[in-house]
Recover the amino acids of this structure.
């Protein structure tokens, strides 16, 4: 009974874990952002359901009503939604630039390219010229 | 006018930021941003003076009394850090006038300065506010603008570094609002002062426990405590040098402030330690962080990355000092916070000077620069000495207090570990010295010389501060002690 009575928190926790899992497990940068949004949305749910009292109305003073819901968490979450949108927009803008610079938005492909860059600068540091040095791609072939 | 200083501290850079977009001329926009940050520096000087004279300043936003309205509270702790952040903001901007021209195309200057001032706004806001939700809002303002600053770097890896930071930073910030939400659920208030009074009534509930857990993990992500530091090295390495200097000097420090404020002013140190083994966690993570990241620093080939790893190690010292849990330990944390900002700002600005002339921060490109850029390299060595903790530098003062605090508690094995870890700093600083002074130049460019005066002056202001505040410690030690006593006295 008690477990079902708190169903809003169950929804929050399940959504939060889905979002978190997607952020950690997926390689695709866009999918990671989707996960991040789900993760944030679960917190929005959490705040919104926190202010709700069953049978209560919006806090408009009237003799008819005795019970009022707390509007403050809802207002707070308006701010958090704006922050969430800004974060997603920023993230997507970065993904666009990453796609332009690397030609891929898969994490491991980006990492491969970075490792190669690093190998080249390492070889260069030890006195090899870039054109003489073997690159990772050459070794693969 | 004086009454409104706490809010002006935040509003001045906030209004300055969008105005930057309107100034199209790259030269003028830099000077304008410098003007704005100088005004914020003056405000923070006045605030510190006011606090030292009259004690805590309270400002009710829009005239709404706390706990309904948002309240700004300026006490010893945050006025001290406001001075640090706004001073770093202004000094770094002096160097950026010439430095940024070498790293960013002219049409991006105004965007850079807009993001820079927004980041400054966010950091100052976190320091000023006495409202838990407001902390989150300002944290996101500063984070979003630092993601932008980082992504402006020339290397394409700046983009992935910024993306990585965005993911980790957002998870951290979301953890912080979960924590704040859980606390609000139990107490019905967001005002920190009010929370401190109402939390003891609900101490036994599991909700409060998880609130504290979420909040602390969230903040530790932001302050890059080992092993949550993975976003930091790349972000510092590939951001424009000016952005690195500013972020390294301020952003993690402000996150440490949030942690201190939360543990001491909101939850109370006794309670925080009884419910969570915070002391053990911080000692273990602090010490292992110091060693793991100092050793990583030794193997770096990019000098910005090297100092980024060393930054994480220094955060380990601060957290270790915090874990001691005595006023002396907290004094050491606050001192190291201030002093580390001085060292890293000097070092990263000097590296910025090299990037300006040589175009790279690879260690191998530093070969033989000791003869070509004598002043810049001397500044790097001075900063390195301070990082090691050689006497007469600020690094010595904070390590001295750390060792004193450790010995006071009888933790001599940790004292030995701290001293050994300083030797690791000797190794990575020596590697730089070796490249700079004892190897022959790789790149034969005749025009490599010290950066223009516009960059050398701020570098040397910081280097002199490193030595001056290492000898005359009355300001830093005095204010840190007062702040630590205030926090332990339970007076907010």
């Amino acid at each position: 009974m008690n477990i079902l009575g708190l169903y809003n928190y169950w929804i929050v926790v399940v959504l939060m874990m889905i979002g978190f899992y997607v952020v950690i497990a997926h390689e695709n940068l866009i999918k990671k952002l989707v996960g991040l949004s789900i993760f944030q949305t679960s917190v929005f749910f959490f705040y919104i359901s926190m202010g709700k009292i069953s049978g209560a109305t919006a806090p408009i003073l009237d003799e008819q009503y005795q019970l009022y819901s707390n509007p403050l968490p809802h207002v707070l979450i308006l701010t958090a939604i704006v922050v969430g949108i800004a974060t997603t927009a920023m993230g997507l803008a970065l993904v666009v630039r990453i796609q332009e610079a690397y030609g891929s938005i898969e994490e491991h492909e980006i990492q491969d390219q970075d490792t190669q860059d690093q190998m080249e600068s390492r070889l260069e540091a030890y006195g090899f010229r870039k054109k003489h040095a073997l690159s990772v791609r050459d070794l693969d072939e | 006018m004086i009454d409104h200083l706490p809010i002006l501290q935040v509003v001045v850079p906030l209004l300055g930021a969008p105005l930057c977009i309107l100034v199209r001329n790259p030269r003028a926009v830099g000077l304008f941003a410098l003007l704005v940050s100088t005004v914020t520096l003056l405000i923070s000087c006045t605030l510190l003076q006011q606090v030292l004279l009259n004690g805590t300043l309270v400002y009710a936003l829009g005239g709404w009394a706390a706990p309904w309205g948002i309240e700004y509270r300026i006490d010893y702790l945050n006025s001290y850090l406001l001075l640090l952040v706004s001073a770093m903001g202004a000094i770094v901007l002096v160097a950026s006038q010439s430095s940024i021209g070498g790293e960013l195309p002219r049409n991006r200057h105004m965007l850079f300065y807009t993001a820079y001032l927004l980041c400054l706004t966010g950091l100052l806001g976190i320091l000023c506010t006495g409202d838990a939700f407001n902390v989150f809002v300002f944290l996101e303002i500063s984070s979003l603008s630092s993601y932008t600053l980082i992504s402006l770097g020339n290397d394409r890896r700046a983009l992935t570094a910024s993306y990585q930071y965005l993911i980790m930073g957002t998870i951290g910030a979301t953890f912080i609002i979960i924590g704040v939400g859980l606390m609000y659920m139990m107490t019905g208030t967001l005002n920190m002062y009010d929370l401190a009074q109402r939390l003891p009534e609900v101490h036994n509930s599991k909700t409060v426990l998880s609130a504290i857990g979420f909040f602390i993990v969230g903040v530790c992500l932001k302050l890059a405590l080992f092993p949550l530091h993975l976003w930091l090295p790349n972000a510092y390495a590939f951001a424009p040098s000016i952005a690195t200097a500013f972020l390294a000097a301020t952003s993690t420090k402000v996150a440490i402030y949030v942690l201190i404020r939360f543990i001491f002013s909101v939850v109370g140190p006794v309670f925080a330690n009884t419910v969570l083994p915070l002391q053990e966690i911080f000692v273990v993570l602090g010490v292992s962080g110091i060693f793991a990241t100092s050793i990583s620093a030794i193997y770096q080939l990019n000098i910005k990355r090297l100092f980024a790893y060393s930054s994480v190690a220094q955060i380990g010292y601060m957290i270790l000092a915090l874990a001691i849990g005595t006023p002396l330990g907290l004094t050491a944390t606050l001192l190291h916070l201030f002093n580390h900002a001085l060292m890293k700002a000097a070092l990263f600005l000097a590296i910025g000077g090299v990037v300006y002339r040589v175009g790279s921060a690879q260690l191998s490109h530093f070969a033989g620069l000791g003869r070509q850029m004598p002043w810049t390299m001397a500044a790097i060595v001075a900063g390195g000495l301070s990082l090691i903790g050689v006497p007469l530098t600020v690094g010595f003062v904070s390590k001295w207090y750390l060792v004193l605090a450790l010995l006071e508690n009888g933790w001599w094995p940790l004292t030995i570990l701290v001293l050994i870890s300083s030797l690791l700093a000797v190794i990575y600083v020596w590697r730089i010295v070796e490249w700079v002074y004892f190897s022959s130049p790789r790149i034969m460019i005749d025009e490599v010389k010290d950066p223009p005066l516009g960059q050398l002056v701020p570098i040397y202001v910081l280097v002199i501060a490193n030595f001056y505040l290492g000898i005359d410690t009355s300001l830093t030690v005095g204010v840190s002690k007062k702040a630590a006593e205030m926090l332990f006295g339970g007076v907010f």
About this structure: Confidence is low (pLDDT under 50) at residues 130-141 of chain A. Chain A is about 70% helix and 0% strand.
